[in-house]
């Protein structure tokens, strides 16, 4: 039962899964029962996530009905149907406003404390029961841009460790903080929405993961020339996405777009819808904690049958598929293979594979069980330095991608509008001159008049060339940047998992020194941190490889297109110049 | 003695030589004595010319001292040192304001009336006495942009004939109007500032010109394929203008720029200053009534030793000289030959030639005496139709030249600023991306990083190419347009002379029919109108020939430069693309 609440103080989200709220903002809270001091709900912008329970007050019906805030989202297309319209009047002054609201120390509790229920109460990635599989949920499932799964811009993950996250001052949290101080040991992270916890990284490091790993599930990290890397897929393939077609069902009541996928290793085309991609994406995100699964192209509420949108989405899916099929781990995993190979006609087989994927036990913490690291363990100091270097790198790359994207976007816009206009104005002026010259009936002027007129046409054509060009060269660059910006948004979480594991190692070492932990237990933590580190570094290595491959290919494509463009202009001008030969 | 006056009514100039004045505008009048109902003076914008005496009132000292108008030009750089500062208060209401001021009928007087003193009281083109020849009057003589010599924008010369020009209502003018009505005959134009009168066209048509024409002075109009044309110069030549140098005299007290001219028919370089060009221009304008002498490049009060200005003026002089030396009549005339061939060292010879040119009797009306028309007289109806067609043509060409000039000017500005900026922003963003990539120390990324960095440099260079390009291709187009806009501004006057002659023919025919004129007199008018028509059509034919030649050459040059430009860009991009081969 959704409730309305009012924020008493500003709260700035610092961790994935949290949302920022402003003092006096009207919020929707999904349950009056807080989860360890946190409420889950939606802020007035429609962002879903956690905020401290003590920062808000629940609005009772009588209070809510007297409040009205125009700044509150009242639009009909709210992603959440249960967000009430209307809101809170900005003139209202909270009676108990406290400046410098005291923040609690980081709470923690010892191993003996009962572990929190994993994922309980947190919005799950699309499970899509078999029953609603045929419903048109193309644009109603919400995984791709779910808060907390890294869908936003690059998060600043500095200080995302347990020492700095903000918690509520609820009595329970304070109680835990007290407890942590009195019994220091390898602590469990209180914030169940920390990626380290959510991903299963913590559970794995602490030795709580268990599952039966089949030989076929084994994922090998090998020591390559530049460090740990994923073992290559021995059967590499690619996958074509053909022009999407509009399909209807229920006698035309429902329409959807179907994409024909043809993997090179089967040559059997299968038809897939956006919702299938979305479902697959959710499975992969859930299953692979330290692998960057690129975002699938954005959803769009309106105009999803418009040609431009379909073409754009298809291009996005091609990029996505290109990444998927060239990733040594993702390309081989069962759920992806099921997606690529199961006939669209055989509904039973599809549902079977779907159910199997949704019940897959080797997800999250258990995924790490499937990893087989190189024989020699890594030097954690070196690992830390590499991870830190990568962190700096991703920040810089993200900044530069953002800048390049803005520049390229503006450059495209200028070419489509300004450049085109300038060239066409020149063309028009030449045309007008030739028309004036035609007033003179001297026969010796006729050739020149025609040549100038042709020159005018040439410049008008060149104006068109400028307007058409961005779709050929700048758009692909923007597509590439979008894919990589998606990756870069994933890395803070991935790094967070590895850093969490490393913290556990350090804590365990300290505890061993203090005689609070036995060596075997610490060695286990070490070994498991090594596995996480190997996987993380292998993924980073893979990222660099595909980055170099993709950017090289795209820059070459861009320059080739640019060269062809200027050659086309030159050709047009040469044609115009020839007209003067006999003038 | 200059006097101040106030305009009582608006007056819009309709003829060259007149200036417009606004009601209440404070004017400077050079003499209280009107010239046939006109005052000569300067309006508040500093424009010099004629306005009707009855439209203004002279301000006596006491009245002037009480008036103060801020909108009056009080800047110190007025071209006329005797324009008093201060002015007229806009709040002042003229006591005798008359709406719909009655305009007098066009006055005229018969042949028996005393002819007006030619040019008396009207500003003369630079004569430059020998005494002041050595003065530094580069930028103080005022021929090139003298009002009434066609220096302004294209004049609308519709209705510029005697039937519509505006005259004053002074008693003298009214008296003449009465006189005209009582003795109708081939009328003399009252407005001594009409081009037809000024040029000597009227005097020639009426048979009043007389002079001794030497054989060497004969100018032949021949019947060519397309109508009358100037006989070709049998000894064609061109003239180089070398890089101007700064010279000093009076021990460095005075500086000037000297241009080295080298005509191909003598190979003897001579040094000439801007004032010499200015003097020559004045001689040619005075001498040739129906020949379009292009304007010399504009004067500039400040910065005349700056490189940009010198280079621009030199280009303008090259265009000017190019036109001069390819004109069959101008290229052969004595004063131009003197200018081109007289040694700059031989001051005596120079002064002799200069004096001779200034005393040349075959100027204005007498110039027509030197013209030898083709044997068969022209059909005046056909001439009129050709002239009208040309009039329409020049209007259209002027409009289109104006538009092209504005477009090209804007296009150049965009390339220098906007285009350059866009390309350089793209270049900069690539550079930033390559710098981010350099954070990754993977050896396999190094080649790509360098290639992207090079691509960034390439786009910065291309931005520079864009900024540099207009001086190579658009500037020459603008120079060409400026030259032709100058020609187009000359043609209204030229056409006016021919039309004036044709009107005289029509009047004489009517008078013959009415028995008021004998046939011999009318035939003389016919013959002389034929000469003016032949010269005008020959000049128009020449204009079309050089127009086709110049625009063809310039368009070819423009396109060649453009092609080279886009090839240069392509080359730079190809260079960048190659960097990826080993990346």
Our measurement of the CA-to-CA distance between the termini of chain A, rounded to an integer number of angstroms, reads 83 Å
Which bin fits the share of residues in helices of chain A?
A: 40-55%
Indicate the proportion of strand residues of chain A.
5-15%
On the 0-100 scale, what is the average pLDDT of chain A?
Answer: 77
Shape of chain A: elongated
The major beta sheet of chain A can be summarized as: 5 strands, antiparallel
- Trace the largest sheet of chain A across and list its strands: 4-3-2-1-5
Low-pLDDT runs of 5+ residues of chain A are: 62-184
> Could you tell me the radius of gyration of chain A in angstroms?
29 Å
Structural class of chain A: alpha+beta
- Strand tally of chain A, please? 13
- Count of alpha/pi helices of chain A: 12
Assembly level:
homodimer
Order of helices and strands of chain A: EEEEEHEHEHHEEEEEHHHHEHHHH
- Greatest interface: A-B, 63 and 63 residues
């Amino acid at each position: 039962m959704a409730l309305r609440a009012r924020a008493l103080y500003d709260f700035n989200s610092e961790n994935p899964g949290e949302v920022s709220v402003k003092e006096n903002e009207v919020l929707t809270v999904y349950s009056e029962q807080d989860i360890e001091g946190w409420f889950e709900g939606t802020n007035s912008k429609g962002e879903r996530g956690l905020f401290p329970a003590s920062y808000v007050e629940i609005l009772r019906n009588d209070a809510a009905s007297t409040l009205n805030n125009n700044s509150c989202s009242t639009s009909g297309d709210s992603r959440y149907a249960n967000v009430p319209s209307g809101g809170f009047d900005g003139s209202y002054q909270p009676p108990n406003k406290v400046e410098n609201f005291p923040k609690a120390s980081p709470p923690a509790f010892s191993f003996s404390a009962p572990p929190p229920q994993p994922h309980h109460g947190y919005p799950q990635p699309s499970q899509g029961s078999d029953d609603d599989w045929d419903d048109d949920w193309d644009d109603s499932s919400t995984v791709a841009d779910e808060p907390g799964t890294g869908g936003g811009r690059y998060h600043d993950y500095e200080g995302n460790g347990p020492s700095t996250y903000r918690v509520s001052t609820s009595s329970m949290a304070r109680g835990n903080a007290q407890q942590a101080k009195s019994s220091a040991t390898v602590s469990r992270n209180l914030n169940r929405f920390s990626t380290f916890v959510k991903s299963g990284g913590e559970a794995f490091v602490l030795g709580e993961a268990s599952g039966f790993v089949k030989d076929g599930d084994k994922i090998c990290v090998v020591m390559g020339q530049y460090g740990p890397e994923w073992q290559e897929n021995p059967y590499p393939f690619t996958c074509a996405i053909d022009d999407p077609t509009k399909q209807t069902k229920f006698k035309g009541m429902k329409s959807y777009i179907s994409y024909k996928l043809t993997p090179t290793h089967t040559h059997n085309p299968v038809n897939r819808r956006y919702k299938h991609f979305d479902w697959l994406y959710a499975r992969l995100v859930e299953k692979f904690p330290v692998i960057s699964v690129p975002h699938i192209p954005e959803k769009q509420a309106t105009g999803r049958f418009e040609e431009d949108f379909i073409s754009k989405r298809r291009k996005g899916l091609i990029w996505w598929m290109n990444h998927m099929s060239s990733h040594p781990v993702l390309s081989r995993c069962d759920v992806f293979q099921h997606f690529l190979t199961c006939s669209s006609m055989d509904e039973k087989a599809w549902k079977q594979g779907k159910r199997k994927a949704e019940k897959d036990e080797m997800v999250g913490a258990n995924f790490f069980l499937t990893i087989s690291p190189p024989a020699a363990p890594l030097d954690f100091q070196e690992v830390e330095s590499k991870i830190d270097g990568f962190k700096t790198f991703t920040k810089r790359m993200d900044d530069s991608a953002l800048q390049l994207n803005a520049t390229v976007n503006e450059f495209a816009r200028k070419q489509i509008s300004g450049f085109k206009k300038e060239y066409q104005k020149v063309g028009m002026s030449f045309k007008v001159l030739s028309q004036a010259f035609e007033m003179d009936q001297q026969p010796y002027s006729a050739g020149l008049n025609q040549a100038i007129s042709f020159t005018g046409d040439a410049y008008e054509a060149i104006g068109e060339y400028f307007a058409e060009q961005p779709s050929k060269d700048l758009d692909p660059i923007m597509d590439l940047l979008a894919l990589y910006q998606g990756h870069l948004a994933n890395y803070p979480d991935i790094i967070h998992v590895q850093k969490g594991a490393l913290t556990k190692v350090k804590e365990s070492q300290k505890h061993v020194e203090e005689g609070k932990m036995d060596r075997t237990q610490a060695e286990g933590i070490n070994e498991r941190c090594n596995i996480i580190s190997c996987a993380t570094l292998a993924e980073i290595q893979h990222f660099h490889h595909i980055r170099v491959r993709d950017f090289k290919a795209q820059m070459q494509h861009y320059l080739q297109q640019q060269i062809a463009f200027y050659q086309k202009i030159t050709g047009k001008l040469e044609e115009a110049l020839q007209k003067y030969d006999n003038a």
